[in-house]
Amino acid sequence: MEFCDEIKRRRTFAIISHPDAGKTTLTEKLLLYGGAIQTAGSVKGKATARHAVSDWMELEKQRGISITSSVLQFEYDGFCINILDTPGHQDFSEDTYRTLMAADSVVMVIDAAKGIEPQTRKLFKVTAMRHIPIFTFINKLDRDARDPFELLDQLEKEFGIGTYPINWPIGSGVDFKGVFDRSERKILAFGDMHKGQMKLDAIKCDISDTEKLDSLIGEYSRRELVDQIELLDGASFEFDINEVQKGKLTPVFFGSALTNFGVQPFLENFLKMTTPPLVRATSSGDITPEDEHFSAFVFKIQANMNKAHRDRMTFMRICSGKFERDKEYLHVQSGKTLRLSQPQQLMADSRQIINEAYAGDIIGVFDPGIFSIGDTVCDRAKKVQFEGIPTFAPEHFAVIEHRDSLKRKQFVKGVEQIAQEGAIQIFHEPNTGMERVIVGVVGVLQFEVLEYRLKNEYGVDVIRNNMPYQFIRWIKTPGTDVKSLNLTSDTKWVQDFKGNDLLIFTSDWNINWALEKNEGLILEEFSKE
Ligand code: G4P
After folding, report:
1. Probe residue for ligand 1, chosen from 16, 20, 43, 263 as the CB with the greatest number of ligand atoms within 8 Å
2. CATH number for the domain including 268?
3. How far is CA 224 from CA 177, 185, 219, in A?
4. Is the CB of 114 under 6 A from ligand 1?
């Protein structure tokens, strides 16, 4: 296949959801369609995690969860699909956000009975920053669900995004009769046969065929459907693919991942509407995926995947060209030339060495310890540098100190190295040294990972005292004298290790106070420096 065709057929996306909305179930069904797995239950999820084959972190085994997010690649109908798994349960962390930087589009799974939940909100916010296409799969229609109009309304009001239902549910729970396909004007009837795992074609019936409709879904449901469709056609947004591609209009699908209903129409429509690898911004202008020169950026670093080697694995998103194993590439930040001899691709639980990969793909490479999050690796013939990955606001804070003052040096080294990998963020109170470090994390499990790694890799025991802060803001007003700001007594001034001033808050209310009482103060939730 031609180089450009390889790139055009790639679709790289992340699936986001609040825990339990059905992300793992939907992913599994997509993999089943692609023939990438033979039985459901192969993807690492809550139920199977304990048995998952993984020699990655010891902690991962102890806790029976997956700290790392994997990338799943499979083929479907000529497309080469890369699904970026965003850790979502107890293992929610900054990696979850960073993974979104590597995606070209996002699928948001929502539980039809619950609507938008807190984690969906956080992930949506980060996705929206990138203006990439976002698709909504409203799941669990086989259970009692909220009114579909109400669900759309919530999406529009809370996220400020237009919605366009591609299909429409007919009832829910025990009364779930199927979905109406808006472009084909036909219904797909749901039946007992959908309880299995196989790819199935639903029964199709034209909406004007009253007699057949009545026999499939009953007169009551038919009347209700006809009324709702009339309302929907009159009131909903117009479908506009340009708006979809800019992330302003979300195509909405209703279905049931567990019973395998609506997954295939979702996949097929999604593949038609989503984008191939996107153009990416560099410091010297945009680079197109079809550019013949290879370029990639680092979005995730996973330490100690193999304990015997104490190695780190770095995950890169290829943005342009073709990656070739053993070819020499430039690591832009260090200026060093590298030969990446064991590039890997991940498939569910297994990893395999690959010889080539294309723009849109994710590769994992062993890291001699030189990479940081956001770094660029590229062809030596064309040096580019990608914009850094933003620093996401931590939501949990703790003071950590070493127990044994003789271990001070190892403590400082450990904390600094782990922060450099992007596994934690570190702060300190102005004019204090590294004895007491304030650690900020997005997910509390990161604290445990930090303690575990300091002990196992650096031989340091630490004392951790959790702090009550939940919000952080970078002060962006130039020349602010932080000491003279009017702040509530439980707002704390800290600095990051680049010397930037920040404020940490216990509540939203305190942030508003700071903004109201200090005219002109600019506070930012994400930092690009
Ligand atoms: P997550 O990755 O978003 O956290 O969700 P996951 O797929 O693990 O699904 C959470 C629970 O919801 C699972 O049940 C799963 O079987 C169920 N589920 C997912 N999709 C549907 C659906 O369309 N309809 C119904 N009725 N249930 C669905 P569990 O009992 O918590 O776990 P398990 O023992 O089945 O793995």
Report:
1. 20
2. 3.40.50.300
3. 12, 15, 9
4. no
Taking Cα atoms as reference points, which of 113, 175, 121 lies closest to residue 139?
A: 113
Kindly state whether residue 404 falls inside one of the protein's structural domains. Answer: yes
The answer to whether the CB of 119 is under 6 A from ligand 1 is no
Confidence band, pLDDT 50/70/90 cuts, at residue 492: very high
Please tell me the distance from the alpha carbon of residue 181 to that of residue 183, in angstroms, as a whole number: 6
**140 within 8 A of 25, measured Cβ to Cβ:** no
Q: Residue 148 Cα, ligand 1 centroid: separation in angstroms?
A: 20
Length of the chain: 529
What's the domain range around 307?
Answer: 280-378
pTM assigned to the model: 0.87
Domain with residue 443: its CATH number is 3.30.70.3280
Rounded to the nearest whole angstrom, what is the distance from the C-alpha of residue 23 to the centroid of ligand 1? Answer: 8
Using the mean position of ligand 1's atoms as its centre, give its distance from the Cα of residue 393 in Å: 29
For ligand 1, is residue 17 a contact (CB within 6 Å)?
Answer: yes
Distance from Cα 72 to the centre of ligand 1, integer Å: 19
Task: Find the 45 Cα to ligand 1 centroid distance in Å.
Answer: 10
Distance 408 CA to ligand 1 centre (A): 46
Least confident of 42-51, 242-251, 422-431: 42-51
Same domain flag for 59 and 156: yes
Nearest CA-CA partner of 270 in 255, 252, 258: 252
What is the atom index within ligand 1 of the atom nearest the CA of 26?
7
Q: For a substitution probing ligand 1, which of 16, 23, 25, 27 has the most ligand atoms within 8 Å of its CB?
A: 25
Please tell me which of 368-377, 427-436, 513-522 the model is most confident about, judged by mean pLDDT: 513-522
Q: Is residue 226 part of a domain?
A: no
Best of 258, 261, 263 to mutate for ligand 1, by most ligand atoms within 8 A of CB? 258
Instruction: Give φ, ψ of 452 to 5 degrees.
Output: -60, -45
- For residues 251 and 400, state if they share a domain: no
Is position 196 within any domain?
no
Question: Ligand 1 in contact with 143 (CB < 6 A)?
Answer: yes
Domain match, 284 and 268 both = no
Structural domain total, the chain = 3
Whole-number Å distance between alpha carbons of 42 and 479: 54
**Residue 203 CA to ligand 1 centre (angstroms):** 25
Strand 523-524's sheet: what is its strand order? 462-467, 396-402, 437-441, 425-428, 492-496, 501-505, 471-475, 523-524
pLDDT for the residue numbered 45: 44
The verdict on the CB of residue 282 being under 6 Å from ligand 1 is no
Residue 184 lies in a domain: no
pLDDT at 349: 47
- Are residue 18 and residue 107 in the same domain, yes or no? yes
- DSSP class of residue 183 equals T
Residues 130 and 28 placed together within one structural domain of the fold: yes
* Phi/psi-derived region of residue 2, left when phi > 0, alpha when psi is between -120 and 50, beta in every other case: beta
